[in-house]
Amino acid sequence: MSFTQFSYGELDVRSSEERGSVAVTFSVTNAGSVAGKETPQLYLRFPADAGEPPKQLKGFSKTANLAPGASELVTLTLMPRDMSIWDVRSHRFVVSTGEFEVMVGASSCDIRQRATVTVEG
């Protein structure tokens, strides 16, 4: 529980061809009147045909103790395994293809920012 409020900046979502990873960067600002820490969470919605749950927690980070008005830049990384589902036929994880929705927020019920990233096969 926090005694202050936080705002989240716009998402910058960048794919890395080299590692197949996706970097999700955003700022967290203490918008309240007292210092505090925030634990932003990263959720992923798979393409509809993947048959996965609507939100899957894929990462989180804890900010430093932010003074009122202070901001911190947060980067969370999605690895190929984070975008994979179990393939029963081949008995291994396979990266899903299509449009993923990337969401960050204070909890699964408090999503603050959204963006999309397309994974091609």
Report on the structure:
By secondary structure, the protein is an all-beta fold. The protein has one domain (about 5-120): Immunoglobulin-like, CATH 2.60.40.10. The chain is built from no helices and ten strands. It has strands at about 5-10, 10-15, 20-30, 40-45, 55-60, 70-80, 85, 90-95, 100-105, 110-120. Strands 1, 2, 3 and 6 form a four-stranded antiparallel β-sheet that branches. Strand 7 and strand 8 (about 90-95) form a beta hairpin.
Task: Please sum up the structure shown.
The chain is an all-beta fold. 0% of the residues lie in helices and 51% in strands. The chain has one domain (6-119): Immunoglobulins (Immunoglobulin-like, Sandwich), CATH 2.60.40.
Q: Notable features of this structure?
A:
121 residues; mainly beta; Immunoglobulin-like; four-stranded antiparallel beta sheet; 0% helix
Question: Which structural class is indicated by helix and strand composition?
Answer: mainly beta
The SSE order reads EEEEEEEEEE
| Count of the domains | 1
Shape: elongated
Please outline the major beta sheet. Answer: 4 strands, antiparallel
- The CATH class label is Mainly Beta
Looking at the structure, the CATH topology is: Immunoglobulin-like
- Assign the CATH superfamily: Immunoglobulins
Query: Count of helices?
Result: 0
Rg over C-alpha atoms, rounded to the nearest angstrom = 16 Å
What's the average pLDDT?
Answer: 95
Query: What share of the residues does DSSP label as strand, in percent?
Result: over 45%
> Could you list the spans in which at least 5 consecutive residues all have pLDDT below 50?
none
Number of strands: 10
Annotated CATH architecture: Sandwich
The percent range for helix content is under 10%
Distance between the terminal alpha carbons, to the nearest Å? 42 Å
